[in-house]
Design a protein that fits this description.
With 717 residues, the protein is α+β, with helices and mostly antiparallel strands. 48% of the residues lie in helices and 23% in strands.
Length: 717
Amino acid sequence: MFSVLHFIFAPCGVFLCPGSPAVIVFNSFFPASGIAEGRNASLHALVLGTLALLSLFLVSRRIRQKRAHSSLEERLRTTAEVMAATTGEAYFRSLAQHLSVELGVDCAFVAELIGDRRERIRTLATYANGQFVDNIEKDIANTPCEKVVATGEHTCRRNIQSLFPKAEVYRQLGIESYSGIALKDPEGKPLGLIGVLSRSPLNDVRATEAMLQYFASRSSAEIMRRHAEDALRESEAKNKAILRALPDLMFIMDRDGTYLDCYAKNPRDLLVPREQLLGKNMRELLPPEVSAAVAEKLQEAVSTGEPATVEYSLVLPDRTGIFEARIVLCGENKYLSIIRDVTEARRTTLELKKTHQFIERITDTLPSILFIYDRIERCHVYLNQGVTAILGYSEAEIREMRGGVVPRLVHPHDRHRVDAHSSRLGSISDGQVLRVVYRMRHKDGKWRWFHGSETVFARGEDGQVTQTIGTATDVTEHQRTQEELQLLSSRLLSLQDEERRKLAAELHEVTAQNVFAVTLNLKVLRELKGHSQSSGESRSRFDALLTECESLCQKSLREIRESSYSLHPPALHHLGLVSTLRWYVDGFAKRSGIQVRLVVAENIDRLPLEMETDLFRVVQEGLANVARHSGSGTAVLRLERHSDEIVLQIKDSGHGFPASEFGRSEGWTGLGIPEMRQRLRQFGGSLEINSTSEGTLLVARVPLDVTRAVEVPGGSF
């Protein structure tokens, strides 16, 4: 500027000094060219006038700037003095009003950020159109406030609606300009903002921004103080609510045990009224033994720095109460003592203990092992003392086995049955009881038989069985008794067969011979009749009698032999089971009219005599049942030998017979289906009967590797 003016105005002797409104005019004038003197005089006058006006404008502008700066500082100082004594809501309201008035804007506001993501504001004070308006909450998305929070400040002198078209409220209110500054905490995190809005362009942006910046720090401090006060009020309200909800007594005492303050939800819980309590020492109110115990705990709280607990009893006017005091150091020379009435809790605990002892006495006197098993943790969570008395192991030893009880203690031949039992427990309904018989090894190494019963004890949230409760009863003696009964039954059957054999022998060797002798005698009488001199009529009668006697004797002889063979076929002892069956089937077919097809495998050899005898008795009873019940005209008798057992089958094509007939014993044999089962059971065998409207199938199975006395695998009793 200086160089330009120099070249323009140098001929006139006038210079403008940059940065100064002063005008320097030289007294001498030198024409720059050969211009006429009159013309130069006019130009000189024009230049001088222009320079004078420019000088006056610059001087006036500088004066206005100084005055404006002085006025802004004065307004800030005045506003700050007015607001210095205000705090809280009064401060925010006063600030909004002064900003609106001093800056000449339509609206001024102070707001705090709210929401988890600070996406909303809540106004703390708003002054608009000369009056305060109610505080509101509003989203700041797509508004100048959002930009203020993001950048720290934002000013728009005009056309705010075009810059933020989504801020519909600005268009509705006719807002033209905006200026705002963010309020932040010491760490730089936004707390809120101060802003002004106007329906006309901002006249003095610099003054507006300066005034907002001036009050930003104080406003941030006020918001933080407001937050702290809110948090304090909330904490106090929460503490009061906790105190109101607590049934405990609270005392503040000094080191000597003097009561400084107290709290009681129910004043009647205090030994004396509050006004009589404060200022007194605990030794004046509590029994000597109680005050001494409390004093000892006061010292313990001081020495350890940790809470100390003491329990004592007090005789009250209406009862004897048990109380628990928790003492903690509260400040340098103060203690907080929280007293809780635990009378009911201790009484309940005592009752529970008695109940627990009562139940333990019952469970420990049970003649069985009582247990609770956790299927999730795979361990026993409870065992009565029966486990030691019956198995020899302590409760701790069983617990240490966890999921290894079955593989370590259960007999190998029974594990599959126990595992299947355990699997079924996962799907049973409440109240359903599953039972299983198995063997377990005693600590002394001997095997013992158990009868187990188990049901659901607890379920998880998903309904799955998590715990089961059950008993394991030692049935070893019962098993021994059963075996002895089985042996006795087998012995009785053997004795029965022996008696039958003797009877058959006597019938065959004695009775039959006698009858045969009678027959011979009758024959002799017949021969002698020819020499008799009797009349013809007498001889005829004599002949008839002899014939009748001979017929009766023949018939008796035949029946005696048949009975003898049925009771104990001689062929069974000498020829074996297969030959005896062929003989018996032929005789049965003749007597009953039922055609029986006998199918015998080629690999059938001689079996133990007692086994052959019992199989023969099964055939007798089976075919007798075919004749009595089936109504069938045919039957199939099949005898096979598998790798480890003998299988005997009797099948007919009759109409079957009801299950009620299975156990009946009819006929001369005296042998029923239960007795057939018993005969087979003594060899470890089994009997199955399946009867339908299309016929009946009887299947007898006898293992080949057993003895008459049933042995317990892996040990003996």
